[in-house]
Amino acid sequence: MEYLLIFLLSSVKFAMTFPIAVFAKGLTAPVVYLITTLGGISGATFFVYAWGEVVKFLRKRNIIFFRRNKPVFTKRSRRLAYVKSNYGFWGLVILTPVLFSIPLGALILAAYYPNKRRIIKCLTLTIAIWSFIMVIVLFTFRDWLSQFF
Questions:
Q1: CA dist., res. 123 & res. 149, Å (int)
Q2: Which of 10, 32, 61, 81 could form a disulfide bond with 39, CB atoms 3.0-4.6 angstroms apart?
Q3: pLDDT in tens, 61-113
Q4: Alpha-carbon gap, residue 50 to 52, rounded angstroms
Q5: Residue 111, C-beta contacts closer than 8 angstroms, at least 6 positions apart
Q6: d(C-alpha 27, C-alpha 147), whole Å
Q7: How far is it, in rounded angstroms, from Cα 96 to Cα 119?
Q8: CA 126, CA 23: separation in Å to the nearest integer?
Q9: Do residues 32 and 43 make contact, with C-beta atoms less than 8 angstroms apart?
Q10: pTM score over 0.90
């Protein structure tokens, strides 16, 4: 049951899962890496395809905030344009697992970049790398970090 909880949590809030898995549940490093990586990848796959279908449906109905015909300049659209123009595809893919949540990153990527296979491949790579980095850091500094949790 605790493995399922870690799996589901890592599919939504990837970076927040590691301290819970290490300090609250006391799981080992390979188990934490495997569960969080698989959870993050499955969450990214689900949300990229789900948001892609939602965006497609809303564009067809002409009721979406990602309209291509008529630009609407709101605070939100400016922020999304800033992130896209300054960080680009790879910036969004690299920052999604740790800075954004996986659903939010998948929404932005699905709205601006149509190639879902490329998004999934790149998110899989970055999720595996971030998971490895987080596990190494947390298990290396486990004793020192345990005083904060």
A1: 29
A2: 10
A3: 766 555 555 666 777 677 777 777 888 899 989 988 888 889 988 888 887 88
A4: 5
A5: 51, 55, 66, 80
A6: 18
A7: 11
A8: 24
A9: no
A10: no
Answer yes or no: are the C-beta atoms of 27 and 6 closer than 8 Å.
yes
- Say if residues 25 and 2 touch (Cβ distance below 8 Å): yes
Record the tokens describing residue 110, joined without a space.
Answer: 């699905």
76 exposed, middle or buried (CB, 10 Å; 0-12, 13-18, 19+)?
exposed
Q: What one-letter code names the amino acid at 47? A: F
Cβ burial, residue 143 (10 Å; 0-12/13-18/19+): exposed
Q: How far is CA 42 from CA 18, 45, 103, 145, in A?
A: 17, 5, 11, 29
